[in-house]
Amino acid sequence: MSGGGNTEYGRKRFQRSRAHFTDRITADGRDGWPVEAGRYRLVVSRACPWASRSLVSRRLLGLEDALSLAIADPIQDDRSWRFTLDAGDRDPVLGIRFLSEAYDRRETGYPGGVSVPAIVDVPSGRLVTNDYQRITLDLATEWTALHRDGAPDLYPKALRDEIDAVMADVYEDVNNGVYRAGFATGQAQYEEAYIRLFRRLELLAERLAGQRYLVGDTITEADIRLFTTLVRFDAVYHGHFKCNRWKLTENRVLWAYVRDLHQTPGFGDTVDFDHIKRHYYQVHSGINPTGIVPLGPDLAGWAAPHHREELGGRPFGDGTPPGPVPEAERVPASGRP
């Protein structure tokens, strides 16, 4: 999710920026960035669905000790993502006040905004990548030497074609669709995004009515990418982005599916509803000029039984759940159901 230009949201036509820095961190280091424990720092906002994918992946794969974490303030200023949650308003590892400083060390005058997720090379302080579509795939396939014992295979080779096809539809109509509806500047543009969004959600509900996960019988990258949009749906997309044909809680299948994932270690323990709501309602001043953050929705239902286990499925395949959340990374009580 890019920062800057907050007053323009809802006033200019929305277009998702492509990642500008697409270097990859790989096992063989072919781009000059070899996988190495402790060398890199993952910068995220808990508010951002694109960054939240990497939070879930990192937890499921047990990379907390190998890839350190920086959490940006959900409220940006004109210099975008900032480290005002940390002592002295600086990231304690990178020593910077704004993520843009790591971008500037990599390239001056780069096109596009400052986005998360971003991975920064700690020794040089330079940005390595902001390729949100690739980062989690590489965590699953290139970082295997550093995975925890019992880590799931989130991108199994035998299912990649199907996973890719599902993710492409989810990206176009759901992940990006809510933004195209929310940031639309014309009625026709909004209606087209809205119609495609709910058509796709209904197709996904049909698919998930008879199977616990999107592809195969275990959690994959496809589930991570759908989860990060669905978990925000009622809190911000239904009202703030006018995606209001129905609430997620009113769709029996999708509401049970997202609760199942939220209650699975590695998913819900990365979600901060306080950060999510404050970011969307206070940063998008072109859409919500008053900056008022709604008190609802009631989050109590997230802990309700989902009964999805009746469909079978093995969340972690032949693996095991991740361990407890590191104390320093626990979501504050204000952000949890």
Q: Major sheet, described briefly? A: 4 strands, mixed
Number of separate strands: 4
Low-confidence stretches: none
Distance between the termini: 24 Å
Overall morphology: globular
Strand order of the largest sheet: 2-1-3-4
Which series of helices and strands comes N to C?
A: EHEHEEHHHHHHHH
Q: Helix amount, in percent?
A: 25-40%
Class per helix and strand makeup: mainly alpha
Strand content: 5-15%
What is the oligomeric state here? Answer: single chain
Count of discrete alpha- or pi-helical segments spanning 4 or more residues: 10
Rg from C-alpha positions? 19 Å
Please state the average pLDDT score.
Answer: 95
Structure report:
The chain has 337 residues and is mainly α. Helix content is 33%, strand content 5%. It has ten helices and four strands. It has helices at 49-61, 100-106, 132-141, 160-175, 177-182, 187-208, 221-230, 233-237, 252-262, 273-283, and strands at 40-44, 68-71, 118-121, 126-129. A four-stranded mixed beta sheet has the order 2-1-3-4, sandwiched between helices. β3 (118-121) and β4 form a beta hairpin. α1 (49-61) packs across α7 (221-230) and α4 packs antiparallel against α6 (187-208). The protein is globular, with a radius of gyration of 19 Å. The model has no long low-confidence stretch (mean pLDDT 95).
Concise summary:
The chain contains ten helices and four strands; from the N terminus they run βαβαββαααααααα.
Structural key phrases:
10 helices; mainly alpha; 5% strand; 337 residues
